[in-house]
Design a protein that fits this description.
Shape: globular
Number of helices: 5
Strand content: 35-45%
Strand order of the largest sheet: 6-7-12-8-11-10
Helix content: 10-25%
Oligomer: single chain
Number of strands: 14
Order of helices and strands: EEHEEHEEEEHEEEHEHEE
CATH topology of one domain: Cathepsin D, subunit A, domain 1
Low-confidence stretches: 45-54, 158-162, 164-170
CATH superfamily of one domain: Acid Proteases
Amino acid sequence: MFGRTWEREGVSEVKSIAMGNCVLTNVPVAIADLSGMNPERSAAATGSHISDSKAMAHLNGVLGAREMLKFGMIMDCTRQMLYISPNGATSAASQSLANFLVTRGFTRIPMRVNANDHFDVEGALNGHATRFIVDTGSANTLIDTQVAVKSGTGVTALAGYGAGGAGGLVEGVNRTGVKELAIGNFKLANAEVVVAHVSGEVLLSKSATESNAGVLGQDYLSTNFAVMDMGGRALYLRRPDSR
């Protein structure tokens, strides 16, 4: 989350990957040391860490954007369900989903795949236009410290609070309230977020068209009934009190 690691990666092809009752065949994969995804910790939860991680299932890898796009995967963040189309993404399926969700009070936010192969969306912090990486693997919405300050967001330090990326505990972070957090046309008032230094490589800060403020995490995705249509490149959100 906070930056790249400079280790060599291998490439290979896996004959089959099973997800529930769906099997993908001949899948190109990268091979790397992901031992940091399964740290042995027994301490209480801190930041984006989850307490009692020993009780969690062992993770063997990451499902990437390539397969998500290819098979038109749809993710229901609240119900923790992943839907896969064996025949691949179709515009008809995405349009049908859009009609179904919009008539039920959802707001559609276009997604794109950025230069780092992450899904991101347009947004704003206190009216300052930016973009956010959509990351279901992050427990918290996280904003870069410099971006937060430039948007007029105050920062309150919390001692002992931490945030974890792929390599485990990275650094101490802060928490703050944003007067208005906009995700496309979907606006959240007085949103609480985590603030920390995020690598410029993740923020893509050298590119005006690619730069982002940080990560939109599972905290606001799950509480706002997020549905991600990977094939249609769209994020749908609905307020908890909306019917």
